[in-house]
Amino acid sequence: MAGGTSTPELAIAVCEAGGLGFLAAGYKRPDTVAEEIRTVRAATEEPFGVNLFVPGAEPADPARLADYVQRLAPEADRQGAELGEPRFEDDGWAAKLDVVCGERPAVVSFTFGCPDASIVDRLHQADLAAWVTITNVEEARAAQAAGADGLVVQGTEAGGHRGGFIDDGSNEGGIGLLALLRTVARATSLALIASGGIPDGAALAAVLCAGAGAGQIGTALMLAPEAGTPEAQRARLAEPGPTRVTRAFTGRPARGIVNRFMAEHHDAAPLAYPEIHHVTSALRAAARKRGDADAFNLWAGQAHELVQARPAGDIVRAMAAEAATVLDEISAALRDRDTSAGRR
Question: What is the pTM of this model?
């Protein structure tokens, strides 16, 4: 939920409701990340986590990148914005590692890649747990080999960027969350945190039954007043509508609600992150300011129409209560079945 939706207020509300709140460090200055960690710590005694982007290995193909930048020039004119410089950088990787090791949240999670074992060792020395986002079994095994404590198992239903690093997930393929949980559970003994298409307590109960120890929710919180979701996106979230995985906005595969920009530029977009992110950043910011939901990324999971506009704490508590009820009902039904079978 990087890019503005994640806020300290949202993390605090989730923590106070019994969940594990997270701060998204992506796209922020290291000093801002440190300040937000301190804000959350001052407001709650509960544990919380921070998510970091693992930098890419190499820049994108300059030729394909140039063609796409030229294609986007009319979009920038439409929004009254300038296209940004297509630069390749690491999102302040080393400095942000220093921040989390110094500030010591309970958990540091990683997306877009698997940190080296030396980095995981460094986190462990600071008494931090390391979670790695994975989208297939091969990535799960790589994360376990690096020393990860837990796996954020991201199904293809999830909104926002695909977090994998061996399969770039650039098309509508990928593995659904329940199937992915079961295959990963067989391949590794690490703790599993399910992510993708968990809009309510019934879905949370389902992933717990499938082997997860917890559910990670994103889209379900985007209409909460504590979230920094743009107003134009809020208006589209609860409406029925298709989503798609696209590289059009940032050069990295991400799932969002289909809009004009996605439809017009999806096929031409190269795999070029973070270069395309920087190219379109000002364009998308201008569209958000104008309230033009057809010209910026509407990240959302496949179950987005089930989101509710409620305080984040109420959402978390309601999901937990519903999941507990569903699990009790399932247990009761199984006991009744066993009793009936015994009578026969």
Answer: 0.94
